[in-house]
Amino acid sequence: MAQNTLDDYKKDQSSYSIDTSKKLKIGIIGCGWIAGDHIREYMNMPDVEIVGVADLIDGKAEAFLKKHNAPEGIHIYRSHKELIDSEKLDAVSVCTYNMQHAEPTIYALEHGVNVLLEKPMCVTLDEAVAIMRAEKTSGKIVSIGFQPRYNPNMQMIKHIISSGELGHIYHITIGGGRRRGIPTPYGTSFIEKETGGYGALGDIGCYALDMVLNGLGYPKPLTVTGFTSDFFGKADDYKYKDVFGVDDFAIGFIRLEGGITIDFKTAWAMNIDTMGDTVILGTKAGLKIPSSGHWGSIDAPLKLYRNIGNTPVETVIPMSKEPPEGVFYWKVRYFLDAVKNGTEAPVPTSQVIYNQAILSAVADSAKLGREVEINIPEI
User: Fold this and answer.
1) Segment 10-45, tens digit of pLDDT
2) Are 282 and 169 in contact (CB under 8 A)?
3) In whole angstroms, what is the distance from residue 95 CA to residue 117 CA?
4) For the chain, which residues make up each domain, given as ranges?
5) What is the dihedral of CA 56, 62, 67, 68, to 10 degrees?
6) What is the pTM of this model?
7) How many C-beta atoms surround the C-beta of residue 66 within 10 A?
8) What is the mean pLDDT of residues 166-184?
9) pLDDT band at 294 (very low <50, low <70, confident <90, very high)
């Protein structure tokens, strides 16, 4: 089973070709750290012309273009509205602070522009619904920035789950987290409430949820009980304690349709090396996904546990190498192909809204101190 699964995800990249007969005009909104990955990949695409970038902070866009040795002639704007109003764009990457994801995404859609939107999708469920409604009205697409989906080991997880090998999946435990990893090397935008909105919950928690929910086919979440804390961000000896306004630890107990439960944990900082592996329990077999200090890759082989007759058997799934171009390249490439071909977004909002609903419900439950129901309105 394992070898066949690996073969399913071996990509012969030499057979992949890019149609260069038409160049897509691209803009980048927000010139922070993650935008560097976007511009790097766009510059690698022979069918892309980067025509403009926008950032609210004076001088940031200029420094951004210089740092990445961007081509001459890229126009600089002070807002997403100026960029979208001034350029004839096929698509934009939205790389702003979490709290500013929804507004430029909706504005772009309203003006006929496709969007590659960085994760998390946004901050509240209401914002996610507004994005999806704008997307539906516009006829354009929004793809969410979950590049781990293009890691072949992540794809192996999806294949094993969807193959039925595990039987009926009834419970999932998500471990992970960082021993020390509050993201401040690039400033404090991740940790301030007005810009980040979420902390570890939205930054790496969304990846952990997507890893398992994508494999399950994104079943609808029903209820969530959540808890968040900020003990490390608010510690007396932490230099950014005065501006720290988000969570550095979050947990949730999630009930999904189909009788599935998830015990979810994530952290930017903790006094232990790991909160455990991710474990998927099924009626025929169980799958263990080794804990990783970072999201987006698998550091050790997956293990499949089952019985053959009365004998417990443990199968180690050989690891696959990432594609040589890197997973971020394929995140951008498949988005561009969807724009060109008028096909569905590679990571569609129709799935990720459930991810966003869980994040929002964990935060709401933590504030209220009780379980909350998830109700997603008709879109």
Assistant:
1) 444 446 789 888 899 999 999 999 999 999 999 999
2) yes
3) 7
4) 8-146+327-345, 148-323+355-373
5) 90
6) 0.94
7) 9
8) 94
9) low
Q: How far apart are CA 349 and CA 79, in angstroms?
A: 24
Closest by alpha carbon to 175, among 208, 201, 224?
Answer: 208
CA distances from 275 to 233, 264, 267, 271, 291 (A): 19, 10, 9, 10, 8
Query: What whole-number distance in Å separates Cα of residue 82 and Cα of residue 277?
Result: 46
- Looking at the DSSP bridge assignments, the partners of residue 226 are 252
CATH number of 148-323+355-373: 3.30.360.10
Instruction: Return the pLDDT at 291.
Output: 86
Cβ atoms of residues 303 and 314 within 8 Å: yes
For residues 299-318, average pLDDT: 96
Round to whole Å and give the CA distance between 372 and 139: 33
pLDDT for the residue 296: 59
Report d(CA 108, CA 28) in Å as an integer: 11
CA 353 to CA 350: how far, in whole Å? 6
Find the radius of gyration of the CA atoms of the chain: 21
Cβ contact 99:196 at 8 Å? yes
The span from the CA of 52 to the CA of 327, in Å, is 24
CA 248 to CA 205: how far, in whole Å? 11
DSSP state string for 138-174: HT--EEE--GGGGSHHHHHHHHHHHHTTT-SEEEEEE
Q: Tell me if residue 294 falls in helix, strand or coil.
A: coil
Residues listed for the chain: 379
Token pair of 80, please?
A: 């997403």
Name which CATH class applies to 8-146+327-345. alpha beta
